[in-house]
Amino acid sequence: MLIILVFTMSQPVLYSEIYKYDFKAVAIILSFLYGGKRAGFAAFLALLVTGFFTDQRLLVLFGNYTVFCLLLLPVTSMFHRYRIKGKVILISLFYMMIPITRGAFLLSKGDHRQTFFELSSSLIVLATLIAIVYLIENMNEQIEMKQELIRTEKMNVVSQLAASVAHEIRNPMTSVRGFMQLMQKENLTKEQQLYISISIEELDRAQEIINQYLALAKPQTDQYETIDLTSVIQQSIDVMHSYAILNSIHITQQVESSLEIEGLKLEIQQVLINIIKNAIEAIKSEGEIRISAAKNSDGFVSIQIKDNGVGMTEDQMKKLGSPYYSTKEKGTGLGLTVCHQIVKQMGGQIRIKSELKKGTSFTINLPSKTYKKQRTL
Q: Could you tell me which residues come within 8 angstroms of residue 220 by beta carbon, excluding any fewer than 6 positions away?
């Protein structure tokens, strides 16, 4: 964007000594939309520096683009809520403020020729802006599709492995565990009792991993039902309450009443318990977990589970939810993989925000019952 700014401002189309036309608005808009506030204001600073060295009217440039950048801030936050068509319409309406206001000013002065030139050049700039937005959005969509394809392939491998191996391993493990429990009743030394207890614990852990594999492999055949989500969240908190107290962790909640979704109660409870458990283990001791749930204006129910634990890096967050990847020493990563799969099947998504040494926030967005009815109609 900085290179585009320098080239377009150094080689403008000159209508007169006062009026110069170029593509600098495109560079500023794209910097804010796809780079964020820092990139946007960096581009604005580069605009002023370039303007100083290219004989621009600096005060006019500063005044116009200060207002322009401030108006871009709310547009940027709205921009990413829409799909490609919505994004193009939003940014087109925003950009057209420039030629409309400037055209009105020129008409008031009676400069009809300049007004025509203003509108025609603005249409060229707008067409360029729309083309670039389309290209970037299509490219982002292709990247997302590629990532989704890789994720799906990984899930298929895990599912096939689970289906072919899990059942075969389960039976001998159950027999071994049973014999070990029988041995515990014998007159053994404390050391031998300890070894057997450790062996049983490790067998249970292996059993839990197998259950997670089976959860990935199992096709969704059950019919969805209406779930009182408020009640399910409370039950999940109650289940994890003793584990939190054991680790000196306080759980606070702010959950709206009468939240309803369509799904399977046991599955959504599994998601909540898994994420709350991860939050407790991320804090380790003496911390706080804040759980909130509310219905959004877009028809989705948003559940947020926020902790003040160790947090994660950007690389860790990108890999989180992939099979076999875990930030825990003895973790398999399958727990969160199952969570992502369950939420995806329900038409929702999990979003993760984290900062190292400050904590992590999991946001689960699920379509509400009323939203699903509207979609059906």
A: 345
3-state secondary structure of 262: strand
pLDDT at 246: 84
pLDDT tens digits, 13-45: 776 655 677 888 889 999 999 988 899 999 999
d(CA 345, CA 198): 37
Nearest in space to 215 (alpha carbons), one of 175, 174, 274: 274
Q: Do 350 and 340 contact (CB within 8 A), yes or no?
A: yes
Average pLDDT over every residue of 350-374:
81
Amino acid symbol at 264: L
Structure tokens at 98: 């420039």
Close Cβ partners of 302 (under 8 Å, ≥ 6 residues apart): 293, 294, 295, 296, 363, 364, 365
H helix runs in 162-264, sequence order? 167-184, 190-217, 229-246
Average pLDDT of the segment spanning 357-361:
87
Residue with tokens 């318990």: 273
Identify the burial level of 228 via C-beta atoms within 10 angstroms of its C-beta, where 0-12 means exposed, 13-18 middle and 19 or more buried.
middle
Q: What does the pLDDT look like over 139-171, one tens digit per residue?
A: 988 888 887 777 777 666 766 666 666 666 777
Cβ atoms 199, 138 nearer than 8 A: no
The pLDDT tens digits for 227-273 are 899 999 998 898 888 888 888 899 999 999 888 888 888 788 888 98
CB within 8 Å of 119: residues ≥ 6 apart: 99, 103
279 touches 289 (CB < 8 A): yes
DSSP string, 82-136: S-HHHHHHHHHHHHTHHHHHHHHHHHHTT-HHHHHHHHHHHHHHHHHHHHHHHHH
Residue with tokens 């991993």: 209
